[in-house]
């Protein structure tokens, strides 16, 4: 397991991004202006870089990593931050984005987990 965090909060407009097949995550100590757009989680260490083909489980739903932006591993290690894009793209559109492929967007709930294997 490379990363395993418990969801501790959901910003006021964080789930609105799911209409664009995107989720923004941050450690729960994120600045206030970022908390409202983010799914917050407990801090944890990323033991290995996220790579294409890795399995990601979000609230019980499984996805596979299809692309990783140049900065995504760095920001995930430093701040627990990245944008998760549920579009299956093999070409990272933004440096802090991890693209995932799977059947449908997750149902985000406090107390559930985000796990990268």
UniProtKB/TrEMBL annotation:
Q: Which InterPro entries match?
A: PTS_IIA_glucitol/sorbitol-sp, PTS_IIA_glucitol/sorbitol_sf
Question: Which residues are reported to carry the modification Phosphohistidine?
Answer: 41
Say which domain of life the source belongs to: Bacteria
Looking up SUPFAM superfamilies in the UniProt record yields: PTSIIA/GutA-like
Q: Which terms does the UniProt entry file under GO BP? A: phosphoenolpyruvate-dependent sugar phosphotransferase system
| Entry GO MF terms | kinase activity; protein-N(PI)-phosphohistidine-sugar phosphotransferase activity
Q: Which residues does UniProt assign to the signal peptide?
A: none
Question: Which Pfam family, just one, is annotated for this protein?
Answer: PTSIIA_gutA
What does UniProt give as GO cellular component?
cytoplasm
Q: What is this protein called?
A: PTS system, glucitol/sorbitol-specific IIA component
Q: Which organism is it from?
A: Alkalibacter saccharofermentans DSM 14828
């Amino acid at each position: 397991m490379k990363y395993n965090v418990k969801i501790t909060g959901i910003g006021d407009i964080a789930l609105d991004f799911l209409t664009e097949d995107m989720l923004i995550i941050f450690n729960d100590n994120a600045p206030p202006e970022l908390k409202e757009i983010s799914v917050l989680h407990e801090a944890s260490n990323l033991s290995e870089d996220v790579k294409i083909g890795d399995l990601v489980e979000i609230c019980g739903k499984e996805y596979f990593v299809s692309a990783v932006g140049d900065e995504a591993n760095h920001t995930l290690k430093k701040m627990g931050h990245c944008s998760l894009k549920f579009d299956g793209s093999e070409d990272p559109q933004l440096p802090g984005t991890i693209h995932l492929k799977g059947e449908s967007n997750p149902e985000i709930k406090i107390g559930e987990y985000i796990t990268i294997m």
